[in-house]
Design goal:
There is one protein chain. The protein is of the alpha/beta class and 764 residues long. It folds into three domains: 2-347, Aldolase class I (TIM Barrel); 360-660, Glycosidases (TIM Barrel); 680-762, Macroglobulin (MG2) domain (Immunoglobulin-like). 34% of the residues lie in helices and 21% in strands. Strands 1-2-3-4-5-6-7-8 form an eight-stranded parallel barrel. It has an eight-stranded parallel β-barrel with strand order 9-10-11-12-13-16-19-20, surrounded by four helices. Strands 25-24-27-28 form a four-stranded antiparallel β-sheet. Helix 11 packs parallel to helix 12 (331-347). The radius of gyration is 31 Å and the shape is globular. It starts with a helix and ends with a strand. The model is unreliable at 1-33 and 665-678 (pLDDT under 50).
């Protein structure tokens, strides 16, 4: 009772100093008064409110009304309310949010060690934050939610190393409830939410992140909810705090953890709030923050996640500006685009041949010889490419080639791949887009191609007049789109368009006026009803590197051009195919260390680019030795199979579940026979890569002869680790690579004339 009287006196004095209204709760501030809430999904935004420019969002004339009309909840950090906060801007913020009928959340500590580690910690923390909250509330500002920021993580044993009181989970939960009750004495209608960092917890069978380790999150939440309920309080929302980089880092298994938490929350009747942002983008650039925040939505959606509260929060240096919403890549711009993209994705009808979200076609091109070497180099029939890119010309350089086209399509049908037919408008001397567009001289060729595709009768990608903006293809503005449309129309007339997807292909090293329109119409774009997919050709790493600048010396860079094109694809709801993709400029060699450098230089950024651009749903890797062609000699040798390190890492990447490969591909004769899982299992060595020694595990179902041999990349035996009888069960064997050079090695186990093989990397 004494504590309550002291607290009440303290708050009355605070209100007197502020000189504003009483503590009575008005009807309009007594709950969820926001626009259009019926228990469905809500959009939240939380700018970096402790930055000096935060309140500037509420200056007269600031341009973010479109976003404001879309969101349901605006979140503010309690520390943004200081004695120095401009009163005029504070009142402006209250009016603006109330007029827009937007709910207000305050992110508070809930518990922090600086409030002490005794039995009054919760009350003291609430009293300190109420002083700040009343600066808003006493001026008429509604407080619909209070989100308590990591009170459990911060205070329990094994939690945040920067400030733990070493409490048990139950003790921390009780102190958190003390905080809630103290807040509710002043704000009786407020609703409470909890936010905790996901990756550091173990969730069920999903392991901890290698950083903090403080137990199973579901067990922790179960204890917290039991304490809250037993003391007559309620948590309405749990926000999962997991920036893109933590969620996407394989050791954390972040996406799966968040999905497991969501299922748990729904089983308990709680709403799940998913916070979307990027720590790396937040530290590096406005654009990276936006791209990775959007990628975060798609990556979580691909796991089956379906949060109730869809949120964009930033507590970073980037985005460096909050407004205006029309300027890339301010915070309000990023949020506006984020929510619009979600709505477009929900309403959009998938394009022809478009795979499910999160899936990417694995394709290849464009020489039979090097495609076969590519497939042989992968040495794994489970990752055989499902798309094959090849070419045709109108009218062509050697007369009519209809029989060759039919043979090529027949070959792809026999293999089972999807053809990717790229059609150039040329006779080898001049470009024919104007002739196709305005006359009928080559209509018979178009009709013959359409007839061959109809006879083929299966899925096919058609890329008319690819790289329309390249100087090497001096097509004509306004006429090129007419030629594109004529091809689609004649396919439709022949009944050959139903199974065909038409791709509009851009090259970023050429001009960027792909979306320009004037009184004569679109210079290059054939139209939404004619284009099924956007297509982008990427070669040099500068064209797509996630860390590359969009502008150089005031000019749009090739990376900037790529991003502009991809942004248009997202705006129009079109999937993107990387029709030609090749590691230009890497000059792949057989040297192991050189392969590691090339991998880090070109391939690692490319996989990151795919992660951050979920609209990209297919690629054709052009497996060529460019040095054999004079005009491309400086592009180097880009063949995957040349370098053992690249070959191994590339195959590992393709084994990830997002890639679509040819089902039931015939074996190449290179890979080892695979024994049924019930007979024995050969596990990946650990650690891998390794320096000096490593451990290999295996499991056999029945007693028998086991042989385990290590080979180098040339197939020479370097060690026999086992050649004897072994009993059923799991076993471990050590391999000491003393005296062996760095490189890729293979270990092969044979049990009862059946074998399995795995690769390992030795790095000195």
């Amino acid at each position: 009772m004494k504590t309550f009287l002291v607290t009440l006196l303290f708050l009355i004095c605070t209100l007197h100093l502020i000189g504003q209204e009483s503590l009575q709760i008005s009807p309009e501030r007594s709950g969820l008064h926001g626009r259009g809430f019926n228990g469905g999904k809500r959009y939240w935004i939380s700018p970096a409110s402790v930055r000096s420019d935060f309140w500037d969002m509420f200056k007269p004339g600031t341009a973010w009304d479109t976003l404001l009309s879309r969101i349901h909840v605006f979140s503010i950090h309690v520390n943004a309310l200081t004695e120095r906060t401009d009163t005029t801007l504070l009142l402006s913020a209250v009016r603006k949010l109330k007029d827009a009928r937007v709910l207000v959340n305050y992110e508070c500590g809930g518990l922090r060690p600086f409030s002490g580690c005794d039995s009054l910690a919760g009350e003291r923390h609430a009293q300190g934050e109420l002083v700040q909250l009343l600066r808003w509330y006493s001026r008429g500002g509604p407080i619909d939610f209070i989100t308590m920021d990591s009170p459990i993580n911060t205070m329990i044993a094994g939690g945040d190393p920067n400030g733990t009181c070493n409490w048990s989970v139950q003790r921390a939960a009780n102190e958190m409830v003390d905080y809630m009750k103290e807040i509710r004495r002043v704000l009786p209608a407020v609703r409470f939410a909890l936010v905790e960092p996901i990756p550091w917890y173990r969730v069920g069978s999903l392991p901890n992140y290698p950083g903090n380790n403080y137990g199973d999150l579901l067990m922790t939440l179960d204890t917290v909810l039991a304490v809250v309920s037993s003391r007559g309080e309620t948590l309405e929302i749990f926000h999962s705090d997991s920036p893109y980089e933590y969620s996407d880092d394989p050791p954390t298994q972040g996406w799966k953890k968040i999905k497991a938490v969501e299922e748990f929350l729904h089983s308990k009747g709680l709403r799940h709030g998913r916070i979307h942002n990027s720590q790396l983008g937040g530290f590096q650039s406005d654009q990276m923050f936006y791209e990775r925040t959007l990628a975060s939505w798609y990556r979580y959606k691909d796991t089956g996640g379906d949060p109730d509260e869809i949120e964009v929060w930033s507590w970073y240096d980037h985005p460096s500006r909050n407004v205006p919403e029309s300027q890339p890549y301010t915070f309000t711009y990023a949020c506006k685009q984020f929510f619009e993209e979600i709505e477009r994705a929900a309403a959009r009808v998938p394009a022809k041949l478009e795979p499910p979200n999160g899936k990417v076609y694995h394709g290849v091109g464009q020489s039979n010889r090097w495609v076969n070497e590519y497939i042989a180099g992968l040495a794994d029939s489970t990752i055989h490419p499902v798309v094959y890119n090849f070419y045709y010309d109108i009218p062509g350089t050697r007369g009519d080639k209809f029989e060759q086209l039919r043979q090529a399509l027949t070959a792809e049908r026999d293999i089972g791949r999807i053809p990717h037919l790229s059609i150039a408008f040329t006779d080898g001397r001049v470009w024919t887009d104007s002739i196709i567009a305005t006359g009928n001289r080559y209509d018979y060729i178009i009709d013959s191609i359409a007839a061959a595709c109809k006879e083929y009768g299966r899925r096919i990608f058609i890329r008319p007049g690819f790289e329309f903006n390249g100087s090497w293809n001096p097509y004509h503005p306004y006429l090129y789109p007419l030629a594109f449309r004529k091809i689609v129309d004649r396919f439709r007339a022949f009944g050959a368009a139903d199974s065909a997807a038409f791709l509009w292909c851009y090259y970023p090293s050429a001009p960027n006026d792909f979306d320009s329109i004037d009184t004569r119409g679109a210079r290059w774009y054939p139209g939404d009803s004619y284009v099924d997919w956007f297509s982008l050709d990427l070669f040099y790493v500068r064209d797509f590197h996630p860390d590359s600048a969009g502008y150089r010396r005031g000019q749009l860079s090739t990376k900037g051009k790529s991003e502009r094109f991809l942004a248009l694809a997202r705006e129009k709801g079109k999937p993107v195919f990387l029709s030609e993709l090749s590691a230009a400029g890497t000059f792949v060699t057989t040297d192991f260390n050189d392969g590691m450098n090339d991998w880090n230089l070109w391939f690692v950024p490319f996989w990151r680019f795919l992660d951050e651009h979920p609209e990209v749903k297919g690629f054709n890797y052009i497996n060529w030795d460019w040095t054999q062609f004079g005009q491309w000699k400086e592009w180097g040798d880009a063949r995957i199979e040349v370098n053992p390190f690249i070959r191994m890492k590339y195959a590992e990447e393709l084994r990830k579940p997002r890639f679509i490969h040819l089902r039931g591909a015939k074996t190449t004769g290179i890979e080892s026979s695979v024994v049924p899982p019930s007979a024995f299992k050969l596990f990946q060595n650990y650690p891998n890569p390794f320096n000096g020694s490593t451990t290999i595990g295996f499991e056999v179902a029945t007693a028998g002869s086991v042989r385990l041999i290590v080979f180098d990349v040339l197939g020479r035996k370097v060690a026999t680790l086992l050649d004897e009888e072994w009993s059923p069960g799991r076993h471990l064997v050590s391999f000491d690579a003393d005296g062996l050079p760095s490189g890729i090695y293979f270990y092969r186990m044979t049990v009862s004339n059946q074998a399995q093989r795995r690769a390992m990397v030795l790095i000195r």
